Amino acid sequence: MFTGRAAQLTVYFGESDQYHSRALYAALLEMLRREGCSGATVTRGIAGFGASSVIHTSAILRLSMDMPIVISVVDRPQRIERIIPHIREMAPNALITLAEVEVIQSGAPFKEGLPDVKVSEVMRREVVSVHSDSALTEVVRLLLDKDFTAVPVIDDQNKVIGMISDSDLLKRGGVAVTLSLKKATDPDFVEQLHKALRDPGRKVAEVMTREVVTIAPDTLLAKAARLMVDKHLKRLPVVDNQGRLVGILGRLDVLNTIAAVHIAQWHPQARVAGSHATVADVMTREVPTVHESANLEEVFHLLVSSSHKRVVVIDDRRQVVGIIADSDLISRVSRENWPGLIELLASKLPFEKISAPAREHLSKLRARSAKDLMTRNPITVRQEMPVASALVISAENATKRLPVIDADGRLVGIVGRTEMMRALLA
Fold first, then answer.
1. All domains of the chain, ordered by start, with CATH?
2. How far apart are CA 265 and CA 69, in angstroms?
3. SS3 423
4. What angle (nearest 5°) sits at the alpha carbon of residue 339, between those of residues 336 and 345?
5. CA distance 43 to 304
6. Side-chain-side CA neighbours of residue 26 (13 Å)
């Protein structure tokens, strides 16, 4: 937790309320834990009445099975804002209130590492999956609609027999570009998916990865996280002792667990108990960088050649003023030029080797310099910051790579989630 300004969310409903055949309070608690909340309290009332005006009481002669239930959550305002839509969807008839509070004391200090919780306490139980005979077009449309890029493949007994991801679609499925690029475009562009697949009639079985790494629900989270890092995985299917799918553990679930117990508002004078690795220890110092006045040719050259898939924009003092990803190019070109520009990015050819039609697509960009093209005020982290603090920032801002700055705000490196997780688990 932390001290300072926070938000308190309170949800009022009845004990008999359910969500997908489960007690609503239990389902809400699981969701709050999964979303990385610092904590939540469930209170069962002894009496009360709501919109129905029916009085409920725990008195022995008027025992009610629908006593009032209250869930209270205190957390950072950004996280509370993120979970409100989930609560409204899960509890449409509940009374929900929100208040600003001041946290005076937040309990024991965080010790770097992961808490001793089991995978079953963090995993998502509602899993999106496909069968081996599903069409590839179905998988692509499914992934475009979700915030993940891989799904388990199951048989008729719900046993995991494979995984299919955007990388499988790129390598063996005939999809020309990553799904992240397609997600950056207008929904109308999804209608071109049949054209993006060389053979829309192909099935999942032809493309999926058959060697699947799975995890048991009673495995400690730290072990699962280490497996993710070692195997370069973002999602782990959770299976029972019969190999049946019971949940999914994503890297973001691990990051949210870290965020739930870590000091949120780090500052240079902060002291974190047990802390050892800092961002400077794990960052990459070679950063694809351009000055804000750089022309389109310079930006494109770095963008297609960098493994980071983004370019950091700096000013004369080497301070970070923006960042450019391939999706920024897509958003700044007219719709009719999307297919050509996406094909251009997928080719990863140097600027001097691209064709005349490709150059024409680039000329249609509504930008002439890095300053015109960049996303302004990107999230950055300090080089002396503990890696756990940087991971919290990464999770809460849905940012996979973060520019690293020194005390004067000058760019000194870039850091990704994988490197930080590896250091945290060392």
1. 4-103 (3.30.70.120), 119-260 (3.10.580.10), 279-425 (3.10.580.10)
2. 32
3. helix
4. 130
5. 54
6. 10
The string of DSSP letters for 319-371 reads BEEEEEEHHHHHHTS-GGGHHHHHHHHHHT--GGGS-HHHHHHHHTSS-SBHH
Pick the closest to residue 60 from 48, 70, 47 (CA basis): 47
Question: How confident is the model at residue 331, as a pLDDT?
Answer: 72
For the CA atoms of the chain, what is the radius of gyration?
24
DSSP string, 190-250: GGGHHHHSS-TT-BGGGTSB-S---B-TTSBHHHHHHHHHHHT-SEEEEE-TT-BEEEEEE
User: For every residue of 372-387, which 3-state class applies, written as one string?
Assistant: HHCEECCCCEECCCEH
Give the model's pLDDT for residue 170: 67
- Cβ-based neighbour number of residue 359 at 10 Å: 12
At residue 130, the pLDDT reads: 93
Query: Looking at residue 185, what DSSP letter applies?
Result: S
Query: With DSSP H G I counted as helix, E B as strand and the rest as coil, what are the percentages for the chain, rounded to 5?
Result: 35, 25, 40
Q: What is the model's pLDDT at position 273?
A: 42
User: Residue 174 in contact with residue 103, Cβ under 8 Å?
Assistant: no
pTM, rounded to two decimals: 0.65
pLDDT at 3: 58
Q: Return the residue matching tokens 């150059």.
A: 359
d(CA 55, CA 44): 15
What are the residue ranges in the chain where pLDDT is below 70?
A: 1-4, 36, 49-66, 106-115, 144-147, 170-201, 259-276, 333-352, 358, 364-367, 426
Question: Tokens in use for 333?
Answer: 């070109």
Q: Cα(374)–Cα(381) distance, rounded to whole angstroms?
A: 19
Q: Evaluate whether 320 touches 409 at the Cβ level (below 8 Å).
A: yes
